[in-house]
């Protein structure tokens, strides 16, 4: 099973009493049921095509909050990277790893569909191997760096 992030949009009926999270790539049959987005988008669709996408008001609010959170995380990450460059943090060899890790964390937060347990465990194993390698690098670095707090023997 693929675990790609799917881009979607929150839609509601004109009365804002029903809510739908519809993948942007989804083509719905045309009809007489009007949907709107908070940004002014409009679609007239067949209401029978909406059933798999309907969510409760609470789920719609949670989904929207998650989208805003992702936007803020992305902006914060961009500002942090800019500030790091200004401070000369690019001399740190680990800087190149921050963005992919942030992307992974955001992708995990957005993941809202069931995933294959085998695929999830395989990814967890790969991450554990990365953790082991980073810990070995840190230990090697500590062994090379003299400890100022250690007393001579």
**Helical percentage:** 40-55%
The average pLDDT is: 81
The N- and C-terminal alpha carbons lie at a distance of: 58 Å
Number of helices: 3
Strand content: 15-25%
Largest sheet: 5 strands, antiparallel
Low-confidence stretches: none
Question: How would you explain this protein's 3D organization?
Answer:
α1 packs antiparallel against α2 (about 95-110). The chain has helices spanning about 55-85, 95-110, 115-145, and strands spanning about 10-15, 20-25, 30-35, 40-45, 55. The chain is of the alpha+beta class and about 150 residues long. The protein is elongated. A five-stranded antiparallel beta sheet has the order 4-3-1-2-5.
SSE blueprint:
Layout: E1 8-13, E2 19-23, E3 30-36, E4 42-45, E5 54-55, H1 57-87, H2 95-110, H3 117-144
Antiparallel strand pairs: 1-2, 1-3, 2-5, 3-4
Helix pairs in contact: 1-2
